[in-house]
Amino acid sequence: MGKKRKVDLGKYVDPPITPIPAVDRIIEEGVLIAASAVRMTVKNQIIVAALRDHTDFDETTLLDAARTDFVRLAEQSEETAARLEKRGKEKAPIVYESKVDANRRKEHRRRPKVERQLAEALRAEAENEQTIAGLVARAKLDASEELQREVVNRLVSVAIEPDPDYDEFKAGRLAYLITVDLAELEKNTELEKNELDKNSEEN
C-alpha cells in the first residue's frame, strides 16, 4: 500500500469573540419586547370582549390591564434573577480553556443583575402614565383593524357559502310553488278576466 498523504488543515484559530452587549442595551431591548407583549395582551382583551362577551371595552380597565402586565413581567424577571443567583451558589467554579467560554461565563455571572435592572425598568414603565396611555391606544388600533378583518371575512363567508339544505328541500319548494303560488296566480287572473267581462257588458 502507498504512503498516506497528509492533508494540511492549517493552524487552529479561536473563533472571533462576540462583544458582550452593554447592560443598558439589553435593558432597552427587554423593555421593548415587554411592551410588545403587553400591547398584545390588551389587544386580545379588547377582541375577546367584542367577539365573545359582546361588550365594549372600558378605558380604565385596559389601562389597569397594561400596568398589571408590566408588573407581572417584572416579577418574572425578579424570579429569574433569584433562581440564577441560587444556582450560581450551588455550582462549583468552572475553569474555562478559551476566551469564548470565559466571555460566556462573564455574561452568565452578570445575568441576575441584568434581570433585576430589567424588573426595575418594567415597574417604571407600569407607573409611566404616558407610556401606558400610548400603548393602550396602539392596542385599540390593532384590535380595531383585526376586528374589521374578522367582520369582512365573516360577511364574505356568508355570501359565498351555499345553503346546505338547498338540495334537500328543493323539491318541496317547487311543489309549493306549483300548488300554491301558481294556483293563486290563476285565481287572480280569473278574477281580473271576470271583471273585464263585466265592464264590457255594462258598456
Can you describe this structure?
α1 packs across α4 (129-160) and α2 crosses α4. Helices cover 78% and strands 0% of the residues. The protein has 203 residues and is mainly α. The longest helix is centred in the C-terminal third of the chain and has 37 residues, at 166-202. It has five helices and no strands.
Total domain count: 2
Q: Give the uncertain stretches in residue-range form.
A: 176-183
Taking all Cα atoms into account, the compactness measure Rg is: 37 Å
- Work out the helicity level: over 70%
Q: Count every helix, treating DSSP H or I runs of 4 or more residues as helices.
A: 5
- How many beta strands in the DSSP annotation? 0
Structural class, judged by helices and strands?
mainly alpha
How much β-strand is present in the residues? under 5%
The best one-word shape is elongated
Average of per-residue pLDDT values: 75
Secondary-structure element pattern, one letter each: HHHHH
What oligomeric state is this? Answer: single chain
Cα-to-Cα separation, first versus last residue: 132 Å
* Biggest β-sheet description: none
Short description:
The protein contains five helices and no strands.
Short descriptors:
single chain; 203 residues; mainly alpha; 2 domains
Please specify the SSE layout and strand pairing.
Blueprint: H1 23-51, H2 59-90, H3 99-126, H4 129-160, H5 166-202
Helix pairs in contact: 1-2, 1-3, 1-4, 2-3, 2-4
